[in-house]
Each structure stands twice: as C-alpha cells, then as structure tokens.
Amino acid sequence: MLPMVGKAALTVEIVGGAQQQIPIAIVPFAQNAPIPDAVSQDNISTIIGADLRRSGLFRVLETRGVANQPSTVADVRYAEWASIQAQALTIGTVETLPGNRLKVSFRLLDVLKQNQLAGVEYNITPAQLRITAHKIADIIYEKLTGEKGVFATRISYVSKANGRYSLQVADADGYNPQSVVSSLEPIISPSWSPDGTKLAYVSFEKKKPIIYVQSLVSGQRYVLANFKGNNSAPSWSPDGKRLAIVLTYGANSQIYAIDADGTNLRQLTKSSAIDTEPVWSADASAIYFTSDRGGSPQIYKMSASGGDVKRITFDGAYNVSPRLSNDGKSLAYIRQEQGRFRVALQDLASGQVQVLSDTSLDESPSFAPNNRMILYATSVNRKGTLAAVSTDGRVKQRLNEAIGDVREPAWSPALNN
Amino acid sequence: MKRNILVSALLAMMLVACSSKPVKDTTPAPVADKSVGTTTDTGSTTGLENDYGLTSELTDPSNILSKRSVYFAYDKDEVTAEYRPLVEAHAKYLLAHSKAKVILQGNTDERGTREYNLSLGQRRAVAVKSVLNVLGVQDSQIETVSFGEEKPQATGTDEASFSKNRRTDIVYVGE
User: How many angstroms separate the CA atoms of A75 and A217, rounded?
Assistant: First the structure.
C-alpha cells in the first residue's frame, strides 16, 4: 500500500449526536522531537478526538484552559479534570526511536475513580501513526461504551471524476484514499471478503457487467464470473469460500452460488421474475434477496441452497438492497415512499421497521462491523455523496468528497491490521 | 411488474400468431417499407458482409436499420407498436445474415437503486429479445445485457430526460 497519510478525500460533517454523550478530555500527546517524515501535521490526540466526536457518543472537551497538561500518570491532577466535568482522560507520549521508528504510549484514566482503565504502548513506523491513533480510539470507545470500536476499519466506494470511475479504499474517517482499480466505464457493487483482504465488484469495462475479485494486498485480480448476459451483485459467504452472484443469460436476473475461484456454479433461484441483490445470513444458512415475484420489489429469504422462500418485507411498494447486520438481528434496506428512497431498518424478530435517514435518494446501505452505524450513498444537488446514520437514528454524518462524486459505499469487516 | 410480464407474454403469443407467416415469407414487412420510404428497398441493397456479417445498410441513415433504440414507458418493459417496425427490420436482417450477432443493451432512468435498475434494464433487453425470438431469430445471434442506470443518454432530472434513458439499444457485434 502506498502511504498517502494525511490526505483526506472525504471530510465528515456531523449532523446529530446521541442524547447522552460521554465527556472526555484528550491531552495533546507529549513529543520528545518532531516526528520524522512529518507525514501528518495532526497530533495523534487530534485524530483520536475527531474519531470519538464523529461517533456522536462523546463530547470531546477543550483542554487548553487546564493549567497542567500531563503526559504521565504521576503528573495527573484529577481535580482539575473533574472541574471541567471530564469523566475520562486520555494522556500519552510519542517518542522517536532509532531506525525511524516511534514509540506511542497512552493511558485512559477514569477521572472520578482516579484509576487507569487502559494503557497500551506501540512501536510503529511514522506511516502507522494514523492507524495507531484509530486503534487507540477503538480501545477508548470499547472501554467507555462496552461496544467494539470501528475507527481502525476501512470503507470502499466508487468515485467518479472527469469521466473516470475509480474504486477506492480509504480509512473509515476518509483519510488515505487509495485507488484499487479505475476505468472509463462504470464500477458498481463492491463487496468485501470476510477477511478484509479482497474486494469483489462489477465492472462494465468490457461493455457488459462482469464480476472481478481483486486482492487488496497484491492488487492482482481475476474474473469471477463472465457468463452470457449480466454478471452482477456479488456477495461473499461468511466463510469466504463462495459468493452469491446474479446472472441473466438470456432472461431475467437470477441468483447463483459460485466458489471463490470461479468454479462450481449452481443456480439458487428459478423464477420468471427478477431475483437479485443476494446477501448471506451471518450463520450462512440463508440468503436474503430482492425479488419482484409478488408484483413489486420486496425482500425475501431463502435457504442457502435455494428453496424455502419466505417474504420478509410487506409495507410499501419498493423495498430493495437488503443488508444484514453482523449479529444477524436486523435487516437494513432501501424503501421508497412517495418518491423518496430512504434507509430503513427492520428488526428481524419483531418485524418492526424504522426509517432512519432523512435524505431522499439513498442507496447501498452498509453496516459498520459493530452494527452501530449504517453507511449509505445519497445525492445532494445532483452530486453523489456518502452519509451514515446510527442504527438508533440519533447520529447522522455526511461525508463530502472534495472532487467528483461518490457512490456505492461498503464498510469493511473488522480488520486485524 | 408481474402484470407487465404477462402482458408481454400475451403480446409475444399474439405476435407468434400474427407474424409467423411474414417471417417465413421472404417479402419485406409492409410496415418497414413505409418507414424507410419509397426510394430504398431493404430487401435488395444487402451489400457486402464483413467478417461479422455486417453490411452498410446498418449505418445508412435512410435505412430503418440505422435506428437502434427502443424506448419504454415508465416502469414498463413492453415494446410498443411504435417500435415494432424497427425491431422487425432487425429481425429480418439477422435472419438474412446468420453471421451477424446483436447485443441488446437495456437501460433505465436514474430512479431507484443501481443493482435493481440493472435487473430492470435487463428486463427491457429481454423484451426486445422476445420479439426477435418470436420473429424467428435464434438465441445464438442475441446477447442481452443491461447497463441499468449507468449509461444515461440524457442527464436531466425531468421526464424528457428520463424517457430517453428508458430504452434498449441494439448494437451489432463488430461495430
């Protein structure tokens, strides 16, 4: 991967927040010397603060007015932090080491109990500074909310600029955008392999939709499916060994399964209607999909080997693009009502549906690995943009790209990086 | 949409009933003559086939074969009477030039999601293919693909633009 640290293609604007936010003070990390290569002007604490603020669950306090700016536990005067209503305090240091390496250490402290909640040291290269800040933010997030953080994850999306389509992968905060593949023809439907090392996507570069699988490690790709007609809507099985795909041959879209090496094709739906947009359930036993077999596009579920079809959505005349939460408990999809396309979330046990977004041209919902946020594409003034909404509907983010327009987002799985 | 399929299926059956004779017959369809005009006879100006079975008729602006787009109503996949002569002319060409192959490229307007629109565009490509099939063209000469909403002809947000984007384009392999 090319280091393009410090460059943001997407800037995040927060449009809402949780009702109760955790007040946290993040003291700028002490540095013993300027960081070599100066890859980032941001102090590590700025990145951590931006991550926590963006989640909508934290109120990041102004720390400059506090006289004592500790970098070690021994220097902390808890009363000063209690006086600005901080519940939690983060301190840390960045030291330069021989061989162009850095030692980053941080502590998370409970201001009221006056004890340490977490502490970690990292030995990294300067290029790993941002990802290290995201990992620290993940630790803080998990300690204080009880849920896994997703700051050290990535997103993929397709940007269109100057007539060129580019499949990009960026950090979850929009930094470090890297082009995976680009083409003068459209690219749609990127899908992350469960281990986060590959993307399957649909490219029109051969004047028809063909599915490719590309390694994010080597950059090499292969054709997964190039059958007569359309090849589209790839979705990985939870074990990464197979994909559900959509083929047409000479008729309407139908769902097939294919091994990840492009062999062992088998047909899963046999209808005269449109069957498309398959996604696997977390336990791999079922596939959810969109079909207009009942007269309007709705979401259905079938056994992963085909058959045993059950209808899942009933309200509204247009429910498409199903995505399952990683815990398998809820289903996000796009609902059209009165000409507005919006992100809806259905509880699979109760069947209750909540429309989450207040935008009107929404597409491609994608769950964060911790299921807290749903990333999706929308359109503002005819320009594609990305947005995210929390699954409780309280936190809304809008991600704006400086150039061109962006669409087809997909959030990576949790990564071991 | 289910109703549309039924309607198309019914129309297709009617076409089988009405047009099986003209297809077996080699005389040009009277409708095709009317739209081409009196000076051009599509049956006699076949010209030389290239390696792909293509002739200059396909690009002659005075020939109906140069017309390649079949437009559809909103949320519909029915080939209307207006475009029947065009599709019939291409059917006749494909029957006369067995080497020639067409790709039917279905398209939609931008409303709706990309993957679902890809399927809707495909349905429009299949609708044109069904008419060609009924007129006797074999599947080996036809591939149906869809561009969904990805290749709009017009980029406006009004019905005038949308109606240009709901179409199936007939493209010959080798063009």
Answer: 43
